[in-house]
Design goal:
This protein folds into three domains: about 10-85, no CATH class; about 90-265, Alpha-Beta Complex (Sulfite Oxidase, Chain A, domain 2), CATH 3.90.420.10; about 290-400, Immunoglobulin-like. The chain is about 10% helix and about 30% strand. It contains seven helices and 21 strands. A five-stranded mixed beta sheet has the order 5-4-13-8-9. Strands 6, 7, 10, 11 and 12 form a five-stranded antiparallel beta sheet that branches. It has a four-stranded antiparallel beta sheet with strand order 14-15-19-18, with no helix packed on it. The protein binds the ligand Nc1nc2c(c(=O)[nH]1)N[C@H]1C(S)=C(S)[C@@H](COP(=O)(O)O)O[C@H]1N2 and molybdenum atom. The ligand Nc1nc2c(c(=O)[nH]1)N[C@H]1C(S)=C(S)[C@@H](COP(=O)(O)O)O[C@H]1N2 binds near residues 81, 84, 132, 228 and 243.
Length: about 400
């Protein structure tokens, strides 16, 4: 079938139910258009997102298209990935944001605060990379189960809120013997199952407390439900799962949470093992970069000068530098880090001008952090497909005419 000439491409990619209905879903089957036919609609709670910027894997998993990252350091909220382990709470929790309450435990004077009270206690803004630890799972040859994320389960965003250290200090400081900061999500748990098997509760080492904030704003706006509003724990430099949405309890604890999401899921379990609490948890993010352009997804590139660009980050470490290869990693050139530098938890953009000749080229990037860690050629194999930072896996192949 032919698309009506008058219909702009962005509308076709939008894949709105209305547009698909008008055009006849059944005929969206051939060639390049098949992908559009298969596109799932955005779920209602994320219905305000930009559909052409996102790949909808399921109603609880949506990733940013590689081509949608563009060349700005900040990820707009309507293009940011979404990952929910449970369905989000009812949107009515946003009706009176300031009435949301959180209980603070494991401190000398434990108590509950309303969000309205937290707003009077302190304010800080931090730019962080928010990334799902499963980002890049789709590149594991072992095909671990779970969402087959490529590069788009990540974004660089601003959070505003009160520092956790300020809240803890106001309550007399932590009790003795606490080793972890444990956050609990406020989702309604499904009936008839062991609560610990579904509860979203994560513990991070207490060292992370100094940078953590209880955030109510994302990119300058009240946090939408999809991203954890009205209140979210942000642990800068730590993998996404540690950034608890709809947070209703924050505790300094002597032990890690017993919830399954902490005890066995999100562990770097070597091949041939079963996930268990003695294996490393996905905490700090590892040094990583990838190229966002040029891409030849939409046909061959034109020979000549181009600006290879992408993003690089390293958890709690600043990025030291990025090298780029146009020959699949045989030779490397130093890319330029461009601004703005939003701090060590944000990603840096890099650029390398190159002249591309006709043919097929494998473009790769390799970041190094200030502690001297270099992005490896190969991923660390693990059965759940976490922490993929292999530069080889993230390389892009372009065709130049
Ligand atoms: N309460 C709660 N917090 C949560 C989750 C969740 O399911 N419930 N998912 C976690 C995971 S696995 C990720 S990757 C991030 C996703 O954040 P986003 O949806 O804002 O992109 O939130 C984390 N925090
Ligand atoms: Mo995640």
């Amino acid at each position: 079938m032919e698309f009506p000439q008058s219909m702009p491409r962005r509308h076709m990619l939008a894949g709105s139910a209305a547009a698909l209905g008008t055009l006849g879903l059944a005929s969206w089957t051939s060639g390049a258009h098949a992908q559009v036919a298969a596109a799932k609609p955005l779920p209602a709670y994320a219905g305000w997102k930009d559909p052409k910027a996102l790949i909808v894997h399921s109603s609880n998993t949506m990733e940013t298209r590689r081509s949608a990252f563009g060349t700005s350091v900040l990820t707009p909220t309507d293009q940011l990935y979404v990952r929910n382990n449970l369905p989000p709470p009812d949107a009515s929790i946003l009706d009176n944001r300031d009435a949301w309450s959180i209980s603070i435990e494991g401190v000398k004077n434990p108590r509950t605060f309303s969000l309205g009270e937290l707003k009077t206690m302190g304010l800080e803004t931090v730019a962080t990379v928010l990334q799902c630890s499963g980002n890049g799972r789709g590149f594991f040859p072992s095909k671990p189960s779970g969402t087959q994320w490529t590069v788009g389960a990540a974004g660089c965003v601003f959070w505003s809120g009160v520092p956790v250290r300020t809240v803890v200090a106001a309550l007399g400081g932590g009790v003795d013997g606490t080793v972890y900061l444990t956050g609990t999500g406020g989702e309604k748990l499904p009936d008839g199952v062991d609560p610990l098997s579904v509860l979203v509760e994560r513990s991070v080492p207490i060292e992370a407390l100094g940078d953590a904030i209880l955030a109510w704003e994302l990119n300058g706006e009240p946090i939408p439900l999809a991203h954890g509003g009205p209140l979210r724990l942000v642990v800068p430099g730590y993998q996404g799962v540690n950034n608890i949405k709809y947070i209703k309890r924050l505790a300094l604890t002597p032990q890690q949470s017993k919830a399954r999401i902490m005890a066995s899921s999100y562990r770097l379990s070597p091949p041939g093992t079963k996930s268990s609490p003695d294996q490393r948890s996905v905490w700090e993010m590892v040094v990583k970069s990838w190229i966002n352009g040029p891409l030849s997804e939409e046909g061959p590139l034109k020979a000549g000068m181009t600006q290879i660009h992408g993003v690089a980050f390293a958890g709690t470490q600043p990025v030291q530098g990025v090298e780029v290869s146009v020959d699949g990693g045989a030779t490397w050139s130093r890319a330029q880090l461009i601004g703005p530098d939003l701090g060590r938890f944000a990603w840096r953009q890099f650029v390398l001008p190159v002249r591309l000749t006709p043919g097929t080229h494998v473009l790769a990037s390799r970041a190094t952090d200030a502690a001297g860690h270099a992005q490896p050629a190969e991923r660390e194999e693990n059965i759940r497909g976490y922490n993929n930072n292999s530069w080889r896996d993230h390389a892009v192949t372009v065709t130049v005419a």
